[in-house]
Amino acid sequence: MIEEGLKSELQKQGVYVTTLEDLYNWGRANSIWPLTFGLACCAIEMMAASMARFDLARFGAEVFRPSPRQADLMIVAGTVTKKMAPLVVRLYNQMPEPKYVIAMGACAISGGPFKQGYNVLKGIDRYLPVDVFIPGCPPRPEALIHAIMTLQEKILAQKLTGPNRPRHLNADVASEFPVPAYAEDDLQPSKNSDVWHPPMTVRK
Amino acid sequence: MEALEQIKTRIEAGLPNARIEIVANECPAGDRSLLVDGASGFAVAKFLRDDSQLKLDFCSNVTGIDWPDKELSEKIKVKKLVDGVEKEVEEVKKTLRPGFLEVVYHLYSMELKHGPVVFRMRTANRTDNTQLPSLTPLWRGAELQEREVFDLFGVNFVGHPDLRRILMWDGFAGFPMRRDYVSPDDFEYEPTPHDEVLERTQKHNPVEAKP
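YS: structure for the whole thing
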């Protein structure tokens, strides 16, 4: 590793020194292409974020791709009904690695105001590994931009080697997740226990 | 538009077999409605659509209602012998009203600019005899809404061109909008549970059950 002081000193002389890891992550972090994909009112805010007023293009994330094969980021924007959930998981499976998920809004996080409904999935994190959660109902475009910046920080901090390297560099880790099936009254299985670990609250 | 009583009289003159009641509505809007028996429902609806004074050519809304079995109690005064003296005693008489499903149509006339006429039909019960005639052949716009009523309440529309579930998936069991529907136990985690939700959470998570 090169020292920070030496690095900036060299930069002043017109020599730019970096590591392959930094360069690779810098490139990835500034070209996160989301999947064109909205489920409810959060999608309206997502569209607003990509338009001129909020201008998601400043962060390199304006290229909404209509095909999962070309997308890096799935923004789950809206209520995920149980009828829709298998399709969302399948779309995620169709995306190539490296891929990331942002759960946007109260519904995508937990079911939101519809949590106690019979037909609403209680958070997409039951089936998919979510990288960034955005609370709000719906979150403002600034919140989505903040989530994308958070994701960029996450990507920039990823180590490309070692045991904690990201999933797309680790051949032992599967990049596809089981698609739930429709059962008589619920999805089967109702959660992916490898992904979803509900927080345990001890009450006194 | 003419009064509902007048419409009823004219239908009965045209269709002597139809059994029609006028159902009162206690809410402030007070829209009363025509309750028609299932067997003659289609003919009455056709009459309402084709009659030259009504011309109800637009079905704006189709809704279902679930009426479960209900115990009705009313107080009645009965004469009884108490200690050899005849007295008037109040007794509570209980009757069981068997449940049924109801479908409500709101009909308007685009041509004559009047409406709505509220049209209701009831099934015989909630279990095995839930057939009602479909009005989709009369108003094409009822197709998807009747499918929705079928999906969520379980009313079988006879004569519907494509009666499938619409909101829930094929293979789903049960009718979620019925009063006695038990929803799947699928929200085991809740950050701030209370009442019923707390009980459910505690069942899933024994740690939370500790006082």
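YS: worth flagging: Chain B is about 25% helix and 35% strand.
IM: good catch. Also The longest strand of chain B covers residues 70-82.
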